[in-house]
Design a protein that fits this description.
The structure holds two protein chains of two kinds. By secondary structure, chain A is an alpha/beta fold. Chain A folds into two domains: 192 residues, P-loop containing nucleotide triphosphate hydrolases (Rossmann fold), CATH 3.40.50.300; 64 residues, no CATH class. Chain A has eleven helices and 13 strands. By secondary structure, chain B is mainly alpha-helical. A two-stranded antiparallel ribbon of chain B has the order 1-2. In chain B, α1 packs across α6, α3 packs antiparallel against α4 and α4 runs antiparallel to α11. The longest helix of chain B has 32 residues. The chains are: A alpha/beta, B mainly alpha.
Chain lengths: 331, 267
């Protein structure tokens, strides 16, 4: 089966004018502007299969939104190519528009002065969705997102959580096979976030939609994504499963052991280092790329030493991603 | 289905206004006050004179009141709703215009059409009241009424394009406040809203002939009151049509360029 989203060597360079500091510098910039090229996205390649939810991750300014804008057809790449549901988005923008839905964070596509349902009706007619189909889809969305309790309210009076739920529904009302979500749950409370996650799970698992999600919320990534593409400084750093990411960047566990004999000569097992020692209290950590998992390390420490107490601290995905961003940034 | 989306897009502004009664009350008050003041002003100015600048008192009052009503056809308030180009650029929501199967230029045109029809309803209501109250004169003949209607249509078309150019400016400058202020002033001055162009010196009238503003209101209103005779109407209509074509080509080019300027904000 061919990929829903195909990205090959995608690059985007922006040319901006550098403003020199100070009054004289500002005048010089006006007369003789200095143009610099900023490579927002450089040579990115990946695929997303039909019915897959891929998390596109990276620190702020990594190039995630620029990538999404190229895939939605808003921006034309400087080099490389992309296909979304078989369509080159920046060459056939209108055809691509029928195949995709998009939510850009807190930026709403709803009509501010109109009740939500009126916005849905406008979109229904713009996308030429039959009325019966529109009604049944709206009901399906309402069942999960609980829209009917506020869809007769004008958009300007909605809370952030209500508005984002409506935006999600608006993006999917025309039944697009591919959905782009750029930090859709930013600023939302945990209850609404969970509601949105359930909605997305339903859309991927039951409706077979392909979702490309960018987020800084690692709980969301853990609960929704099986595969992650990590980009930094516009370059692809890693494309793999969450397990692979953990294996690559997540060796930040610690095993804290209390030895029975405080005078034991501590020689750690291979792949394990002594991070700190204070009498019988010893803290072990990973050593090098071949470090064992935390559970292997725990077993090795217990087998090698006589311990009276032991505890482990395992890095959560947030820590893993922090390590990944730092390492990727240093690379 | 194309009719449906056209209908939906066109009614965005009227519906938004109907959902906001205070805005409608404000329009009603403003229009009433403006019409009363303008009619009083021009009646007063003509208290001791019969004909000035080729206009009788009734012609001048009719012109001034119609100018006030016609200026309501397309209100230049960009902040009332959130669906103007400047607002979309400010909030970064302009991207959605480019994510729909309806091209941004067509959506903009449909929105503007609805806005102008909504304004026309107000202007027509005001005209009916002013006509019944004897503040304005009726057209002198059916032919004058017909030519006026055609000229008003062309004038609104020109105005649509002028406003579109100021909106398109947002794609480059993000804001167009200065451009809109200049437009409002130039539009009111050069189209004869402040005073009929016939009161200005010849050099000013000649200068304004090279700009599109005169085609928006001054020409249709002058045809209505008979200051431009029917025999000269064909030439004036041709000039208006020429402005429509010139501005249509310009804005088409700008839409094309603007598509490359959809700002990519954030990483």
């Amino acid at each position: 089966m061919s990929a829903s989203i195909e990205v090959r060597g995608l690059s985007r360079t922006f040319h901006t004018t550098v403003r020199r500091p100070g009054f004289t510098g500002t005048l010089r910039s006006l007369v003789n502007p200095e143009r610099v090229a900023k490579h927002a996205v450089s040579d990115i390649t990946f695929d997303v299969s039909p019915g897959e939810l891929l998390a596109l991750l990276g620190p702020n300014g990594a190039g995630k939104s620029t990538t999404i804008k190229m895939l939605t057809g808003i921006l034309t790449p400087t080099a490389g190519e992309a296909r979304v549901a078989g369509v080159v988005p920046y060459l056939e923008r209108e055809r691509n528009a029928r195949n995709i839905g998009a939510v850009f964070g807190q930026r709403t596509q709803l009509w501010w002065d109109l009740p939500v349902r009126e916005s849905f009706s406008i979109l229904r007619d713009i996308y030429e969705v039959p009325k019966a189909e529109h009604a049944s889809r709206l009901k399906e969305f309402d069942d999960i997102l609980d829209l009917s309790s506020f869809w007769d309210t004008r958009v300007r009076h909605l809370s952030l959580g209500q508005r984002v739920r409506c935006d999600l529904a608006a993006a999917l009302l025309h039944d697009p096979p591919v959905v782009f979500l750029d930090e859709p749950t930013i600023g939302m409370d945990v209850v609404v976030k969970e509601q949105v996650r359930e909605f997305l799970r339903h859309q991927v698992e039951q409706r077979g939609r392909t979702v490309l999600l960018t987020t800084h919320d690692m709980t969301e990534v853990e609960r929704l994504a099986e595969r992650v593409v990590l980009i930094n400084h516009g370059r692809l750093v890693l494309d793999g499963s969450l397990d692979e990411i953990r294996r690559t960047f997540g060796s930040t566990w610690q095993v804290r052991a209390t030895l029975a004999d405080a005078h034991t000569d501590v020689v750690p097992p291979p792949g394990i280092a002594v991070l700190r020692q204070d009498g019988p209290q010893v803290v072990f950590g990973p050593d090098g790329p071949d470090a064992p998992t935390v559970h292997q390390a725990l077993k090795a420490v217990i087998e090698r030493y006589e311990v009276t107490g032991i505890a482990i601290d395992e890095a959560d995905l947030e820590d893993v991603m922090r390590a990944a961003y730092v390492q990727a940034g240093a690379a | 289905m194309a009719v449906l989306h056209a209908w939906r897009a066109a009614r965005v502004t009227p519906l938004g206004e109907l959902h906001t009664p205070p805005r409608m009350t404000a329009v009603l008050l403003r229009l009433t006050v403006q019409v009363v003041l303008v009619a009083s002003l021009w009646t007063g100015l003509y208290a001791h004179t019969g004909t000035t600048a080729g206009l009788t008192r009734d012609q001048a009052v009719t012109y001034a009141v119609l100018a006030v009503l016609a200026s309501r056809l397309r209100e230049l308030d960009q902040y009332a709703g959130r669906d103007s180009v400047i607002q979309h650029m400010h909030y970064g929501t302009i991207v959605y215009w480019y994510l729909r199967p309806l091209p941004p230029q067509r959506y903009y045109a449909l929105r503007a059409l609805g806005e102008q029809l909504y304004g026309f309803a107000w202007a027509l209501g005001g005209y009916a009241v002013a006509l019944a109250a004897g503040v304005v004169e009726p057209p002198r003949s059916a032919a004058v009424a017909g030519v006026f209607a055609l000229s008003l249509l062309l004038g609104q078309w020109v105005l649509y394009y002028i406003m579109l150019v100021t909106d398109q400016w947002c794609f480059w400058a993000l804001r167009n406040n200065a451009a809109v202020m200049i437009l409002v002033f130039a539009q009111n001055l050069l189209s004869g809203v402040y005073a009929p162009l016939w009161f200005f010196p010849d050099w000013f009238v000649t200068l304004s002939a090279f700009m599109p503003f005169q085609a928006t209101l001054s020409v249709p209103l002058s045809l209505y009151i008979g200051r431009i005779p029917l025999s000269d109407a064909a030439g004036q209509l041709a000039i208006q049509a020429a402005w429509v074509v010139i501005l249509a080509l310009l804005t088409r080019f700008l839409w094309h360029r603007a598509a490359r300027r959809v700002i990519s904000q954030g990483g």
